[in-house]
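Example 423.
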Amino acid sequence: METITSSNQAIELEDKYGAHNYHPLPVVLARGEGVFLWDVEGKRYFDFLSAYSAVNQGHCHPRIKEAMIEQIGTLTLTSRAFYNDMLGPFEKYITEYFGFDKVLPMNTGAEGVETAIKLARKWGYERKGVVENHAKIIVAENNFHGRTTTIISFSNDSNARKNFGPYTDGFIRIPYNDISALKQALKEDGVVAFLVEPIQGEAGVYVPDNNFIRLAKEACASENVLFIADEIQTGIARTGSLLAVCGNCTCEGPCERQDTYTKPDILILGKALSGGFYPVSAVLADNHIMEVIKPGQHGSTFGGNPLGAKVAMTALEVVRDEKLALNARKLGRMFRERMQMVVDKYRVAKLVRGKGLLNAVVINDTPESSTAWEICMKLAENGLLAKPTHGNIIRFAPPLVMTEEQLHECCDIIEGVFSQFEK
Ligand SMILES: *Cc1c(COP(=O)(O)O)cnc(C)c1O
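Predicted structure in complex with pyridoxal-5'-phosphate:
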């Protein structure tokens, strides 16, 4: 193996030998701890992407690391041809944690979404009496649910879709945050589910109206349609509560069922479910839905393996024990307050929006401009890593273990960079 001694060397290798399916900032990371990352040259950065919210618990969390190392030396993978002694405890733990009867464990987020789609369709045919092969699932415009052929079939991002057809049928796309469009779509024949992100992360952190989630669930329920929440990015404390569908409930779970909580019929989790150590995703539902899946009808070689089960259980324990939802809520408010001052002061920053520690600043320039990219390059130079999305939006989502003092230091860095972009 070639030893990396400089960032340029690593970039050249990736450029030459790797498929060009990403456009990374030219920073080569070699180490992480908590809210920090270090590059090959030893420069330290605050991480404001958190691997798209997969490391809510902070990089290389010592408790998760210990649990993982212990399990690695004991048992890692047996397949589901046999039982294993970690899966049952994990299933009990995660279902009680989130308040569902059953869980179906997978690995990546996209697999979780695929699982939810299959589950909803099968439920539709077997429990709702939808005519075979005619099930429809309602989705939102500008959704991001992953990269499989079926999932990109109902995306409207041309970059994600174009020349990857033929596409999978059976999806209806409506505008996000639009209850009357949802009610209209629900009238169509064969609708089995509404699949939605409670806050659209990849689209640029779009927070819907306060009552959108509750009204959407009610509209679905009145038509016997499943409400599926994709909380792969918003869940597990990121938005200041255990789940974004918790509304303003501040309990650390299992949810105390405040009236702000909207229980999805199917909940999809991924990313921070393992604290960034290992791909673990999960689909949660109650018995009347989950029981439509029988042996041989769905599965995954790695899904539910003892290593993933142990890591996920520990990652969830950390979220609760360290009260990360509460910290995300508190720091999120501070961050938006500070960024609002930046927006008021500097024309280059147009607006700030978000919830908990999932926030975005919209740059006052076109999506085609390079301003947001240049700002992110300057932020990196000043020791803070963030990445533009859709050209002119910068997402700011640090690990949830950040302290108030660190957050203020980061806001100072961001403000300093914005000040340099005033023309
Ligand atoms: C990241 C993400 C996915 C896909 O997860 P992968 O692990 O990358 O397959 C799906 N839905 C949402 C909302 C996401 O943010």
